[in-house]
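Please, structure for the following, as tokens.
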Amino acid sequence: QVQLVESGGGLVEVGGSLRLSCTASGLTIGGYAMAWFRQAPGQEREIVAYVTGIGDFDQYVDSVKGRFTISRDNAKNTLYLQMNSLKPEDSAVYYCAISTTMAHTTDPSDYDYRGQGTQVTVSS
């Protein structure tokens, strides 16, 4: 079955950096849109960034533009999120997700598999 496993979360100080990874099994990710979502306590889950199936285009929520970079290595079946200049408001559980029906989508409902999540905590 399809599994997505995130890693790389943790506790970091304001202004620090983290790199999240998401390794897929049970399918080949090439050609499918992938995204990072996050959810903080008491808040709705939001899409943070997405990348097209071949990695030729990406898009970010305004609050992370210029600080986060999404990338993928289809040969390694892995998605990444480089997070720089972290702020306390970035604290959340971060999930990776894949759309097995679309190569290009920002609609959260198109993402049919997601991982268990990794906690990111930014201390002030």
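Residues 93 and 118 are 5 Å apart (CA to CA). The mean pLDDT is 96.
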